[in-house]
Amino acid sequence: DIQMTQSPSSLSASVGDRVTITCRASQSISSYLNWYQQKPGKAPKLLIYAASSLQSGVPSRFSGSGSETDFTLTISSLQPEDLATYYCQQTYSTPWTFGQGTKVEIK
Amino acid sequence: EVQLVESGGGLVQPGGSLRLSCAASGFTLSSYSMNWVRQAPGKGLECVSYITSSSSTIYYADSVKGRFTTSRDNAKNSLYLQMNSLRAEDTAVYYCARFSLSGTYYFDYWGQGTLVTVSS
Lengths: 107, 120
Hints:
The structure holds 2 protein chains of 2 kinds.
Chain A: E1 4-7, E2 10-13, E3 19-25, E4 33-38, E5 45-49, E6 53-54, E7 62-67, E8 70-75, E9 84-90, E10 97-98, E11 102-106
Parallel strand pairs in A: 2-11
Antiparallel strand pairs in A: 1-3, 3-8, 4-5, 4-9, 5-6, 7-8, 9-10, 9-11
Chain B: E1 3-7, E2 10-12, E3 18-25, E4 34-39, E5 45-51, E6 58-60, E7 68-73, E8 78-83, E9 92-99, E10 107-110, E11 114-118
């Protein structure tokens, strides 16, 4: 199975800050990397697919980059509504696996 | 509007069975592969099962293989997860999620989830 490791596990930042979350795959996954946002008590929501493509309707402050084994999710200017846990996911091979999540808190 | 609505969750004793359903609307279910994903309380996401549009390929996580069965009825726009021999560690919110049609694979729509609690 492909292991996905996110860092950090949690972070606290101020409104307007630039926030970066990293995700590392245990083997090359090309660009089969997706990012989801999960707000408390809600289902996950797709933010970024294929490493860098923004899902329709998602604010442009979210962006993704990377390939092979190293990927990044960036929030360019953190907003209060971005309070959530963020997960990366690989869909290169089954079982599709998720990172352990990064909890983003607002200072 | 695409909607996925799970049902069938509840409290069950260890060793018991439950059948989850996922009702799809706003799109043609028969065109899409689908997934079941679970999340134990306070934990991360785990893909439990994946089924192709024609049911020709069904994948199960090792943690549920031999106990869970995924099926679909495209005519009824429904996806199912039959869960047998349930264990305490199966306690989780279970989500159904649609797999994208594009050549890059992602879960583009999720249901709201249904809670399964395995406890005596």
